[in-house]
Design brief:
It contains 3 helices and 41 strands. By secondary structure, it is an all-beta fold. Strands 1-34-35-36-37 form a 5-stranded antiparallel sheet, with no helix packed on it. Strands 2-3-4-5 form a 4-stranded antiparallel sheet. Strands 6-7-8-9 form a 4-stranded antiparallel sheet, with no helix packed on it.
Length: about 500
Amino acid sequence: MRLAPPLILGLSLALAGCPDFDDSGAAMPTLGPVAVADQILTADRHDEALVAVTVDAGRVNTVQRIALSGEPTYLAALPDDSGVLVLERDSETLERVTVPDGDRTTWVVGAPFEGLSISPDATAAIAFFPPGTATAVFHNANEIAYIDLRPEIPVEDAVVRRTLASLGGAPLAVYPSPLVGDRRFAFVLSEEHVAILDLSDPDARERSVPLVSLNTGGQRTPKDIRFAVDATSGEPALWAVVTTYEGNSVYALRVFDSVPEEANGASFDVRLTQLAGFTSGGDVTLTQLPDGRLASLMVSPAGGTATVTFLENGNSQAVQLGAGVNRLDTYLEEGRPIAVIYRAGGTAFHILDIGAIEERKDKAFRTRYANRAIQSLLPIPGTPLFFAFHNDTDEAVSVINADTDRVTSFGRTGYVRDVILSPDLDRLYLLTRVANADYLVNVQLDNLHPTTSPVPNGASRLLLLPGAATVATAADLIGGQLVLWPANDTTADTAYAVPAYLLDGLLDRATR
């Protein structure tokens, strides 16, 4: 199995879940830079423009400025790598700029929204006011705008604004669901409840789902949400698993068509279930079994268990792994969902075949060991390799071969700050720091050979453009600039620091 490139991990090294499910939230506002196709794009507030740097094999081909309708407040790359969305507060517009031709589509969203959440298939977006947004003081903070991004929908018909009666203020986060047949829903997280809207029916009222602990009766505040669509019973059904800030309550929500005589203005109904087996400090995700059924997977530090709950009937199976397990990441291996479970700060990790838990239970997992305490793990799908990241300012990376138990250390790599896995290039790129200097580490996955190159002036993040055979670093520093390398040859001799005059101080303005 090969992931869609690239898989990008943030500074926390939190790994992505199964690629079949929406694991995206309402991202924090950013102005870039972002990598799309063969371009690195950044929004320029000062000149109200989008700057596109076209690259190839570690060098700059062109630098283009694209005028925007107003001052940009949010820049996001589209998940399908076709371009970017730019939210512009003062002009109350959303613009899509395609790559590489620079064609633009503009939607009038009707309010100075500053937050944006994009559907995984890049056909829908929701604009909203994040908590603490200054402009929300003069507008309805509980208002959102749904934008249908499909090209066949005229722009004048593509925006629907909704005011959520159940919200007392700005939402904590907004998530567009995957498509369920021809319908899409918005899940709006607020204090102690989740508001759900049918985006395909602007006249239908919202459903407000209070989150109440079945154990204590106390109210719970939603924190995060994971989606999956169950198509095994004929009509597709949407499931969502909601975690809470209180840490010991997890809920499963099933959205289904409402009975007409009980609709009461809504086009759907919601069934809420509190999932058992979760304790504070644990982790949870949704997964799809090989036979199409959906299940939640939870790890409990207190019990040292992993619990699989089959959503169709609520039945559960638990396996005993070891006290303290609190990290959970999933990936696909030849179509089967696999979980890697471990305790942050421990040396053991457990590889669980989720689909086999009904048949073999305690034989459904195997345990492997690192030679030092693990802070985070990155499985390389299609291989027996697991990259372990350690809380070490000197030797922070090692690789465990789960088939042979061999552990390979890369020596003095320094503290890992950012990671990008590119299966198409069969490489893993690390941005590391040793003392006060930053380095790019390029690891060939076939032989685990690392190449290390110093990063001029330091860096804050990694960017990868597989189609343009380029890897780049960007710095959020005064005078910071882009540094480019050919993706397969990242030595010090091939580094190219993009001259400041080409960018006209762009990165300075964008990050202030």
